[in-house]
Amino acid sequence: MNLPNAAPEGPLVSIVDDDPSFGTSMRRLITTFGLKTDVFLSAQAFLDSNQVEDTICLLLDLRMPGMDGLALQRRLRETDRLVPSFS
Question: Over the stretch 50-76, which tens digit does the pLDDT of each residue have?
Fold first, then answer.
């Protein structure tokens, strides 16, 4: 599940966090810089999306149920899908 995108244009920053209010706050902040954002409420939702290849920056929550941010980074590295990320 992901939250609706706020900005239709610009480079994509993907936010993966299980707290919807944090994702909404970060989306509002990042879009002020003219960047497109997409918010995912789980690591698996991000992996299942078609946004992985378009993401230029990944903002991750380190502590989430299921797959956490570090596990997501490992999964991306294992599949050669490298995305700059900030935890």
Answer: 888 889 889 999 988 888 988 998 898
pTM: 0.80
The confidence score (pLDDT) of residue 79 equals: 83
Mapped to the 3 state alphabet, what secondary structure does the chain carry?
CEECCCCCCCCEEEEECCCHHHHHHHHHHHHCCCCEEEEECCHHHHHHCCCCCCEEEEEECCCCCCCCHHHHHHHHHHCCCCCCEEC
Q: Which residue has the tokens 């490298």?
A: 82
Q: Who's near 7: CB < 8 A, 6+ residues apart? A: 31, 34, 35, 36, 37
Count the neighbouring beta carbons within 10 Å of the beta carbon of residue 74.
Answer: 12
